[in-house]
Backbone:
């Protein structure tokens, strides 16, 4: 009986410490040190929430950069991939449809190798990044859709270079570009 009482007391103390005090202190410290990130890196324009830098969004207009495909339609609540494996016929059909769409809308040939992230969905379905190669591949479509002149085209290409993020800690991953940030910056080119 004595052991049970000690166990219940320990359970109560640990629940308060790890379930209440620790989360509250971490939330408070995060709000003080980096409030934007602690609140989900939300982006507001004219006081209206337009998205988060951390969650991929669907851009269908030819005048914007497209993010990588999402198996969940960019809905952050389920956050998952398709779980289709390399032998899946459904995956092969999806990839071929995406390939045809890219060839039709971009200045690429049938034989040109396309960036993998433009053909396959991410594991979370919410990845906000593409490779610089995928961004450069889409640039001609955007130039045509927005009727950019040569100076504006140079601005667009410089924007891709400027917004390219290095691998994390300079060695983890590949260079990448946040599509949401890129599209927001794209609207500043006049």
Residues:
């Amino acid at each position: 009986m004595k052991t049970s009482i000690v166990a219940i007391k320990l359970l109560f103390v640990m629940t308060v410490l790890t379930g209440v005090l620790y989360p509250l202190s971490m939330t408070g410290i995060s709000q003080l040190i980096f409030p934007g990130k602690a609140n989900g890196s939300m982006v507001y324009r004219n006081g209206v929430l337009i998205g988060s830098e951390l969650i991929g969004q669907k851009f269908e207009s030819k005048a914007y950069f497209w993010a990588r495909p999402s198996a969940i339609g960019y809905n952050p609540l389920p956050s998952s991939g398709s779980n289709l494996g390399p032998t899946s016929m459904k995956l092969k059909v999806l990839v071929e449809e995406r390939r045809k769409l890219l060839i039709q809308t971009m200045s690429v040939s049938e034989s040109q190798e396309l960036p993998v992230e433009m053909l396959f969905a991410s594991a979370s379905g919410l990845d906000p990044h593409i490779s610089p190669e995928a961004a450069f591949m889409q640039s001609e479509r955007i130039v045509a859709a927005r009727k950019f002149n040569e100076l504006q085209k140079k601005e667009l290409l410089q924007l891709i270079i400027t917004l390219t993020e290095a691998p994390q800690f300079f060695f983890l991953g590949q260079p990448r570009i946040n599509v949401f940030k890129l599209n927001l910056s794209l609207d500043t080119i006049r």
Q: What stands out?
A: The chain has two domains: 1-39, 53-186. The chain has a mean pLDDT of 91. The chain has six helices and four strands.
